[in-house]
Amino acid sequence: MKRLKPGVALLLIAPLLGELVSGHQTLLEFINPVNFIVTALPYGFGAVICRELRIRWGKGWFSLVLLGIAFGLYEEAIVARSFWDPHWSELGALGNYTYWQGVSWTYAEVLIHFHLTISIISSVVLTEIIYFDQRQKQWVNNRGLVACFAGLALWMPVLMVLNPFMPPLSGFIIAWITIAGLVYAAWRLPAWIFPRRPGRSIHPFWYGVTGAVNMTVVFMTVFILSEINPSWLPGWPVMFAFVAILDALAFWLLMHWSGNGTDWDDRHRLALIIGMLAFFIVFIGLTDLSNGFSGSSIVAVAAAWLLWKLWIRTRARHTSIGNHPKDVQETSAS
What we know:
This protein is mainly alpha-helical. The protein has helices at 6-21, 27-31, 33-57, 61-79, 94-98, 105-130, 142-162, 169-188, 204-228, 236-258, 266-291, 296-320, 328-333; strands at residues 99-100, 103-104.
């Protein structure tokens, strides 16, 4: 990856995580050039845009969170329109469970969770860890950024041709207003929303455990259990509240440990991302055993090995400059 420019690396890492490592596409589907351009590459456009806007605006990690939510809404509510379609193929048993007043509520919530944590945050932070010496710099010029915006905009009409389902106009308008509000807030809010304070010096392992438990519980309860026996689940508002509370608890714990995101380093951030990706790596690794070989186990082994190599290098880098360095520039970029 270090042989690539960081902007190009992020353009590739985002679809790798969002589509391939997540198990949304098989290896053969992912490497199909047409399929890659139409369904996977726009993840890279979104990640580059979110990261570049945060850097150019001089904002902190919370702006990246807001932009990540905005991307998730654009991808699912505007481009794919999966939030509104009661017959969306990936709903499965959730189709009758979570659909109310024209929206698949729990499904929408979990997809926003996924795009925020995997498509945007994991992609951006992983790339910034690889290119740690260029963390504060712009990675694409104005022409490249405009090209990313154009690619992301063209994603909508292309998928509308492939999936002609149209949601109610009121829902479409509300989604656009929400996206605009999130982007505006990311631009206008100060770089530091939460006060700086000392962290708790928690070992990176526990960041990984937090990410793994959060992602596993969310996807197991909403998707896996519903497929096994939907009658096991309570009413969808209860599950909607459960996921929201689970995410709020994980967020509070991470902020408590990291001094509101000001007192941790790349070891902690990488451990958190590895934990969040662990569920998908295990899941796709087992897919070949249950559904026949599709190359998913190869992806799982490669992803695990590459993350391990990155962990070794990141740990060695921080060990060489001292235990838990207080690099203000590094933490402010996170």
